[in-house]
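New to this. Comment on this protein:
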Amino acid sequence: MNQRSCKALVIGAGPGGYVAAIRAGQLGLDTIVVEAERPGGTCLNIGCIPSKALIHAAEEFESAKHRAETNALGISASAPTIDLARTIAWKDGIVQRLTGGVSGLLRKAKVTTIHGTAKFRDGRTVEVTTAEGVEIIKPEHTIIATGSAAVELPFLPFGGKVMSSTEALALTEVPKSLVVVGGGYIGLELGTAFAKFGAQVTIVEAAGKILPQYDSELTRPVAARLAHLGVEVMTGTKAKGLSPDGAGLVVTQADGTELTLPADKILVTVGRRPRADGLGLEAMGVTMERGAIRIDERCRTSMRGLYAIGDVTGEPMLAHRAMAQGEMVADIIAGENRVWDKIAIPAVCFTDPEIVSVGLSPDEAKAAGHDVVFGHFPFQANGRAMSVEREDGFVRIVARKSDHLVLGVQAVGAGVSELSSGFALALEMGARLEDIAGTIHTHPTRGEVVQEAALKALGRALHI
């Protein structure tokens, strides 16, 4: 049984873990990272990256179908076909390039990678089970970055026609009928993609609206696009389980009506849970909250020398949050005085159209006691949006009335995810409406709508 010590041990090589390890290596810390699967975690392997690749392929296919049917823009095209197996192979190639890149970055930072499963023997001893045997590691500091896993419904266990997003991203044929259980961002992103590929998609959501975390003004354009794509959305509807013959999903509507929805495949996307089980944390008395590891403003757990970052610490489960936490913790271990002081974490829903939310919405700002002013500007009045045939959506800026400090920015529209970093920068820099309104925005771009929204909030919009 091999035994070694190190300054920093990182358990999990997802976005948070590999960033923490790379940063620790850059700082000259003797660092080991333990990962049971390929580096990159859920995000690179079976989440963010592959899903966005599939979404892009679906958009291209739907655009080709549109050209074939309408002769729009004077472009004639024959009806396209989709070979999903080749699409998935292309997607897998992107994943392999990225995960290989992460491995290279870890080597460059002189980080030791161990492929195996970690479990704490005690607060200062970690047992790693590998294909070759067991290794004992005695780190000075440990960072838990084990991520999250898809929530499985007891009455709809994964297997057969019931799948999680992992299996959906590996399908090699487009199902004729797909029922998606859960109208959150994962369900709508993948449901929309398969609808564009030609599947008959039904969304089943127990709440009264899709994307419950966003206000109705933001979700309305998404609902309209789903209807245009032929997606049936059933809100206030609960899944009960497979029908006796296994051919469909039994659901109950708000009025008590029970229906069976035919389904070749059933995609369950009802959320994700922190993956903290199996680490032996319970025996060490590490404080947990609803299955997540509780941390403070420096990502410290209740045990000295033990940190946790990313999804394993609960919401918001976002890769970029995990990355920022990982970088911060590595700096702390190296002796820097760091603390989590972020004003806002951008959240993006890659539906069609996309939704971005950074900071406070108008209702959230009012609930926090702010007297607010906000500007709302539609893409219908934007030349760039018109020229790319996507005029749906808007940008909304929320500011404090007394001094015009920007409290939040939200947007819905094609490609608005690329504007999210600018929104976050405005909040982190303490921008006021006058700062955004006075910044020259490139013409013609969608970004001009951000400036116009600020001008609208100031009562002097120019193009509406």
